[in-house]
Inverse folding.
């Protein structure tokens, strides 16, 4: 019989933390963080939550292998949500922690996220870099949802493609004249600037730059009857292009995914 190895914490771990302010109360922010329906309106496509310490807390996307499968370590409504994730690293089970701390302040809420437990060796660099770029975007999406689209269902599709291109080359191709910018572009724009991408007469994306971190990531809010977000992200050798819309039906995002799955293969 083989003894089951208990997960371990790595020595001298790395930690990522971020604070973000919300206009809403801690109760409302807590609901958005922990209610499965709410989670699907700003974060993952799907969520399952057992609202108790020791319960399962799972968030998954409609892409194979994408998700957080965690257990609840701390459940203090409106104050502190602590999640534990066990990962295999070089044959050893290690523990990562995600802690959300909520504090009422000036009629709103300050949320602090602390994601900890990452090793300092180069095998962890890619994952740590990814979450360091990803969390600022995702939490700003949460704020955007609560400010502009509360209680509104979201349709989200992600398109992924492997590439051997360097991030700068991949970014330039996706946002070049053969990609999203037959007319228009985003290369010289900063956060808050207006942008317009005309792929064709029936495919136009326009709005405000939401987040800029080239060449690894870019995102913009979208004009139109239903608010949305267009996002480019490159993680290691995988390019991710996503479209989200709040309200309406899923036709536009489904068509986007069908078209751009093929276009990314041609571009990259």
């Amino acid at each position: 019989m083989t003894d089951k190895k208990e997960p371990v914490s790595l020595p001298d771990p790395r930690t990522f933390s971020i604070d973000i302010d919300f206009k809403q109360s801690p109760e409302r922010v807590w609901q958005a963080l922990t209610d499965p329906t709410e989670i699907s309106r700003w974060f993952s496509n799907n969520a399952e939550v057992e609202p108790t310490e020791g319960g399962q807390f799972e968030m998954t996307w409609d892409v194979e292998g994408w998700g957080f499968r965690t257990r609840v370590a701390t459940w203090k409504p409106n104050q502190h949500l602590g999640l534990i994730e066990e990962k295999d690293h070089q044959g050893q089970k290690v523990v990562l922690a995600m802690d959300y701390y909520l504090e009422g302040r000036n009629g709103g809420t300050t949320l602090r996220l602390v994601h900890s437990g990452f090793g300092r060796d180069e095998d962890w660099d890619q994952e740590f870099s990814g979450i360091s770029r990803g969390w600022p975007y995702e939490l700003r999406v949460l704020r955007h949802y609560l400010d502009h689209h509360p209680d509104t269902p979201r349709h989200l599709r992600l398109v992924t493609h492997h590439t051997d291109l360097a991030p700068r080359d991949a970014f330039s191709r996706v946002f070049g004249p053969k990609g999203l910018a037959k007319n228009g572009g985003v290369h010289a724009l900063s956060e808050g600037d207006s942008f317009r991408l005309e792929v064709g007469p029936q495919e136009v994306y326009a709005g405000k730059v939401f987040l800029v971190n080239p060449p690894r990531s870019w995102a913009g809010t979208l004009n139109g009857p239903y608010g949305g977000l267009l996002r480019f992200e490159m993680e290691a050798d995988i390019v991710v292009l996503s479209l989200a819309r709040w309200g309406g039906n899923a036709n536009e995002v489904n068509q986007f995914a069908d078209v751009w799955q093929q276009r990314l293969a041609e571009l990259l």
